[in-house]
Design goal:
- This protein has 639 residues and is α/β, with parallel strands linked by helices.
- It folds into 4 domains: 211 residues, Rossmann fold, CATH 3.40.50.300; 88 residues, Elongation Factor Tu (Ef-tu), domain 3 (Beta Barrel), CATH 2.40.30.10; 107 residues, Beta Barrel (Elongation Factor Tu (Ef-tu), domain 3), CATH 2.40.30; 159 residues, Rossmann fold.
- The chain is 28% helix and 27% strand.
- The strands form 4 sheets. It has a 6-stranded mixed beta sheet with strand order 2-3-1-4-5-6, with helices on both faces. Strands 7-8-11-10-9-12 form a 6-stranded antiparallel beta barrel. Strands 13-17-15-14-18-19 form a 6-stranded antiparallel β-barrel.
- The two termini are 52 Å apart.
Length: 639
C-alpha cells in the first residue's frame, strides 16, 4: 500500500524543521511526507510501544536539539525515573506551542530513507483509520511484552494486520531486561506467536528480542543477548520493501463531489476524488458505477491551476484530483469512476464479507446500519451469519446469531440499493468498507464475493444500456436550465378504483399551465403498446410478467426523463419490490411517489398520501400539495 501521510514532522523549538537523522540536513515536512515509508506499530497496552518509538527517535538523533536532555532534567526535578516514552508526551506538549509534531505520526530517518511511525494507541481506532483510508501502512511492527507474553490483543492485532493486507510484519519481543535476557523465554513467545500467524497465512519478516529501556537491538546490536545474531529493529525497517503504487491496476476513484463554478461564468463540472488505484489521462474514457454512465476525460484539473501550456502531472494512487468530461453527466457522490476497457468493479446489493465488529452492542439481524464504501453511504442489514470467529483464538463460535465485540464474522450483508466495489481477491483498495451505527464507526470489513439478488438482471440491462447510450448534443443540464425544472417521475399509485388517474392528469394540467414541460403516461398505454407482444402471448400477462412490464415502463420513463420532462404516471398497487425495480432502471433519477386511497395499501413508502377524493375542490387541494412537494424536492423552482 502507498502511505497516505500526515503533515507533521519533528521540529526544533523555534519552529524550524529539526534534524531528521544523525548526519542529515533538516528537511521540510512536505518533503519528508513525499518520500517516507509508513510503518504502523501495534501492541497490547503497556507492552512498550511508546518506549520503542522514543528509543528509535533518540538513537537515530531524530529529536529536536536539546529535547532529550530537557526531558531528563525534568525527570530529575520531579523525582521521576526517566522513561523514553516521556519523549512522545513532551513532543505532544510542544505541539500546542506551534511545534509541528503529531503524537500519532512520528518522523525519523535511517541511513537508507525517511520513516513515519504511525502509533496505534488502541486497536479500535487503528482499525477505523486503516479501513477508512485515514491511515495506510506499508509494514508493521508488533510489540509483545516478554514478561506478559502473547495476550488477546496481540492476537487480535495480528488478525487485523492480516485482514487489512499488511504482509510485511516484524514482531518485537520487548522488555527482555525484565526476563534477564533469557533466550528460552524469547523462543517460547516466538514459537507461540509464529503458530498463530501461520493460521492467518502471515509469515513475519523477523522476531527481534529488544529492550526499549536499555536500547538493546533497537538501533544498534545489543551486547546483552549474544545468543541473538539477527537484525536490529532499524535493520528490519530498512529491510522492508517499499510498496509502490501499481499503475497497471484498474483505475478506481470514488467520487467525492462534483464542483460547479457557474457564478464565475465557468460552465465546467469538475469530478473530484482521491485515486484508489491505477491511473488516468486526458482522452481516456471513464465509466461511473453503479450507473454505467460514460464519457471521455477532457482535462485533468489541479489546484492551484497550472500555468497555461504546462504539462499535466501523472495521476497516481492516493492523488486527490479533479477532471472534466467531454460530455457532461449527472454524476453523484459515491459513484466509482473507472476506466473503460479495464476490468469493471462488481455491482450488487448483496455481498459476502468478512466483518470485524468493534461496538459494545452486538451486530444483529434486526437492525439497520450504514455501510460506507469509498465515498458512498447506504443503509445495510445483516442478512445471514455464516460463522463467527474469536479473533484472539481463531476458534469458531457455534450457532452464533449475532456478532459480538471484537469478533470476526463471515456473513452476508444486504444493501438498500446497488453498490459498486471490488472483491478482496481482485483489488484490495476498493474492497474495504466500514459499518456505522448511531453515527459511530462500529465495525469494518472486506468484501469477499457478491451474491445474486432479485434486481441483478435488471442492473445488467441498465449497465449495458448506459454503456451503449448515444447522447445527443444537448446535455440534461442544458435542458434543465431551459425548462426551469428538474426531470422527474411523479408516480400516482393506489387500488384499481382509486382516483389516481384523475389526480395524475390534474397535476399534468397544472404543471402545463405553469409553463412546465410535462407528460402523462398511464401504465396501460405501455401494456397495450410496447408490451403488445407480452399481451398476445399471455392475455393475463400483467400478472404473469409483472417484472417485465414494469421494466419496459421504466425504460419508457427513462426516455422522457432524459429529454428533461416531468413525467406524471399512474399504476395500480405499486409495492416496495416494484419501486426497487423502477429505481434500478431509472438509476438515480428523481422518483416521487403519491399514494392515493387506503394509506395501508401504499405501505408507507409514498412521499405524499392522498385520501379518497370527494369532489373537484379536493382535487385542486391535493394537486397543490403535490406541487409543493415537487418544490421541496427541487423538481420545481421554489416560489
Amino acid at each position: 500500500m502507498t502511505g497516505t501521510l500526515g503533515e507533521s514532522a519533528v521540529a526544533s523549538s523555534d519552529g524550524a524543521p529539526g534534524a531528521m537523522g544523525a548526519a542529515a540536513d533538516a528537511a521540510p515536512a512536505a518533503d519528508a511526507a513525499s518520500t517516507a515509508m509508513s510503518i504502523v506499530i501495534v501492541g497490547h497496552v503497556d507492552h512498550g510501544k511508546s518506549t520503542v518509538i522514543g528509543r528509535l527517535l533518540a538513537d537515530t538523533n531524530s529529536l529536536p536539539d536539546g529535547k532529550l536532555q530537557q526531558v531528563k532534567d525534568l525527570c530529575v526535578r520531579t523525582s521521576k525515573p526517566f522513561e523514553y516514552a516521556f519523549l512522545l508526551d513532551a513532543l505532544k506538549d510542544e505541539q500546542a506551542q506551534g511545534i509541528t509534531i503529531d503524537s500519532a505520526r512520528v518522523f525519523f530517518k535511517s541511513a537508507l530513507r525517511h520513516y513515519i511511525i504511525i502509533d496505534a494507541p488502541g486497536h479500535i481506532e487503528f482499525l477505523k483509520n486503516m479501513i477508512t483510508g485515514a491511515a495506510r501502512a506499508e509494514a508493521a511492527l508488533l510489540v509483545i511484552d516478554a514478561q506478559e507474553g502473547v495476550r488477546e490483543n496481540s492476537r487480535r492485532h495480528g488478525y487485523m494486520l492480516s485482514m487489512l493486507g499488511i504482509d510485511q510484519v516484524a514482531v518485537l519481543v520487548n522488555k527482555m531486561d525484565l526476563m534477564g535476557y533469557n533466550e528460552e523465554r524469547f523462543r517460547e513467545i516466538r514459537d507461540e506467536y509464529t503458530a498463530f500467524l501461520q493460521g492467518l497465512g502471515v509469515e513475519p519478516a523477523a522476531f527481534v528480542p529488544v529492550s526499549g529501556v536499555e536500547g538493546e537491538n533497537i538501533a544498534t546490536p545489543g551486547a546483552l543477548m549474544p545468543w541473538y545474531d539477527g537484525p536490529t529493529v532499524l535493520q528490519v525497517l530498512d529491510g522492508f520493501g517499499e510498496v509502490h503504487a501499481d499503475l497497471e491496476l484498474p483505475f478506481r476513484m470514488p467520487v467525492q463531489d462534483v464542483y460547479k463554478f457557474t457564478r464565475f461564468g465557468d460552465s465546467r463540472r469538475i469530478v473530484a476524488g482521491t485515486v484508489a488505484a491505477g491511473s488516468i489521462a486526458v482522452g481516456d474514457e471513464v465509466v461511473f458505477y453503479p450507473s454505467g454512465k460514460k464519457s471521455e476525460v477532457a482535462s485533468i484539473e489541479t489546484f492551484p491551476p497550472l500555468p497555461e501550456g504546462s504539462a499535466v502531472p501523472a495521476v497516481r494512487p492516493t492523488d486527490a484530483i479533479g477532471f472534466t468530461l467531454k460530455e457532461q453527466l449527472y454524476v453523484n457522490r459515491g459513484q466509482l469512476a473507472c476506466r473503460a476497457g479495464q476490468p469493471s468493479p462488481r455491482v450488487a446489493t448483496r455481498l459476502r464479507a468478512s466483518v470485524f465488529w468493534l461496538a459494545r452492542e452486538a451486530m444483529t439481524k434486526d437492525k439497520e446500519y450504514l455501510l460506507r464504501v469509498g465515498t458512498l453511504r447506504v443503509p445495510v442489514w445483516l442478512e445471514e451469519i455464516t460463522r463467527v470467529i474469536d479473533a484472539s483464538t481463531l476458534a469458531a463460535i457455534p450457532d452464533a446469531d449475532r456478532i459480538g465485540r471484537h469478533d470476526v464474522a463471515e456473513c452476508v450483508l444486504r444493501c438498500e440499493r446497488p453498490v459498486a466495489f471490488d472483491i478482496d481477491a481482485e483489488l484490495t483498495e476498493t474492497s474495504r468498507f466500514v459499518l456505522i451505527d448511531d453515527y459511530e464507526i462500529s465495525g469494518g470489513g472486506i468484501v469477499q464475493d457478491t451474491l445474486i439478488d432479485d434486481q441483478a438482471w435488471v442492473r445488467d440491462t441498465v449497465l449495458l444500456r448506459n454503456v451503449k447510450w448515444e447522447r445527443g448534443s444537448i446535455s440534461m443540464e442544458e435542458r434543465s436550465r431551459k425548462y426551469g425544472q428538474k426531470p422527474a417521475l411523479v408516480l400516482f399509485t393506489g387500488s384499481a378504483d382509486s382516483r389516481k388517474k384523475d389526480l395524475a392528469k390534474a397535476l399534468e394540467r397544472e404543471l402545463f399551465s405553469q409553463g412546465r414541460s410535462t407528460y402523462y403516461l398511464g401504465i396501460g398505454s405501455v401494456v397495450y403498446g410496447i408490451d403488445a407482444d407480452l399481451k398476445q402471448r399471455a392475455p393475463d400477462s400483467l400478472h404473469q410478467n409483472r417484472e417485465e412490464h414494469l421494466r419496459r415502463f421504466a425504460e419508457t420513463a427513462h426516455l422522457f426523463l432524459d429529454s428533461g420532462l416531468i413525467l406524471v404516471a399512474s399504476a395500480i398497487d405499486i409495492g416496495e419490490s416494484d419501486l426497487a425495480l423502477l429505481e434500478a432502471v431509472l438509476d438515480g433519477a428523481e422518483i416521487v411517489v403519491v399514494g392515493v386511497g387506503d394509506k395501508d395499501a401504499t405501505r408507507g413508502f409514498a412521499h405524499l398520501h392522498v385520501p379518497e377524493i370527494a369532489d373537484t375542490s379536493d382535487t385542486d387541494v391535493h394537486v397543490m400539495r403535490a406541487c409543493a412537494l415537487l418544490e421541496q424536492r427541487g423538481v420545481l423552482p421554489k416560489g
